Amino acid sequence: MTVKAKKFLGQHFLNDESIAKQIADTLSLKGYKQVLEIGPGMGVLTKYIIKKPVITHVIEIDPESVEYLQANFLNLATRIIKKDVLKYDFSEAFGSESFAVIGNFPYNISTQIVFKTLENRHQIPEFSGMFQKEVAQRICEKEGSKVYGILSVLVQAFYETEYLFTVPPSVFIPPPKVESGVLRLTRKIDYSLPCDEKLFFKVVKSAFQQRRKTLRNSLKTYNLSDNLKANTIFDKRPEQLSVKAFIELTTAIETDH
Prior knowledge:
There is one protein chain. This protein is α/β, with parallel strands linked by helices. It folds into two domains: 185 residues, 3-Layer(aba) Sandwich (Rossmann fold), CATH 3.40.50.150; 60 residues, Orthogonal Bundle (Helicase, Ruva Protein, domain 3), CATH 1.10.8.100. Helices cover 37% and strands 18% of the residues. Strands 4-3-2-5-6-9-7 form a seven-stranded mixed beta sheet, sandwiched between helices. A two-stranded antiparallel ribbon has the order 1-8. It starts with a helix and ends with a helix.
């Protein structure tokens, strides 16, 4: 694949065997028997994943990469999915079985991959891989930080997050202009919320869309009662609320109607 094609895909291909092995080793192999690698490219990470005692699937949209994988990973040939992961129905490959997700994720769709994982959290007990460092840090950040936001709250509501290590630009072709970060998400034992989950997503997104405003202002479209709005939580800005506080806020809004 040409450098031009790689840039077009928005992906920087890992060119360091030791880093690839480290990423593959982030898999705990607990709670699943199958793994889906997203965006394998030329298989630098794949070669280490397939050595694990799990059934490996890969999903790749680029025809040249698919052709390379088919020629060089013969044992994987029947499990190469030639689809756009954001449009793919995971049940086609996995039915109702659990599977882990791993990858060196294309920067331009990495957050969308996380949201897709959240939508399928009932099947994905573990998720690990490489992001732009700032995105990885945001996912793992706690309240009180300027980078704490929608992604932080929604992911941490269902998964335990771990920022594992930083990766320099020099190990990629072409080298990106930023550092990368590897993280692991482990689904919580109880990942159901004690509130309306759709409303929870909506409240979190509404709050952070106007993150400089207090919740009293950013959530005023919810037509809350004066009694509820008198609660001191509405004097706060969204980055001051923990995941637990957002769940409590959602419950309060839910019972207010």
